[in-house]
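Question (not urgent): is this output format expected?
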Amino acid sequence: MIWTEAIMELPSFIFPLLKRFRLPPRLHWLAANAINPHFLLGVAGIITDEQGRLLLFHHTYRRSHPWGMPGGWMSKAESPLETLEREVREESGLQVRADRLALIGVTRDRPKFEFVVCGTLIGGTFQASREVDQMGWFAPDQYPALAPFHLHILQQWREQPTTEVGWYDAPWIIAHPR
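Got this back:
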């Protein structure tokens, strides 16, 4: 048994005591961090132009489907919208304005949540990086080979009303087939 499981199996009388005798905030958050599950928080960007074309990046580290939506992992104290703006700037030199949260996704067989954010290109000049070596604007009927996970997200996005935030469920096998 790992120690976090041992904490969750504390005798039932402990929890009322914890409610009655409050911990100082710093200790409270350290304890909460120790006993609760941790998740990776990712962001995928849907950036379109006036013609409805989608901005895609050619990622240097992806082998089977190198073309995909821009995005990355959230940093501490960063919103999903800020993450998209930062990741696009760092990976390509382009400036994006993140407009709205469109979808929230979960990969149930991995500790991962993903936020899909819609955005607009507002400036910058493309500069290749270690992670992205090309960019392109693609109409839906001209997409390069995309990972099934990205196709799943794009389908959910197209079906989702723009006034609502939707959700999707993507098992890892859909996300990253072999």
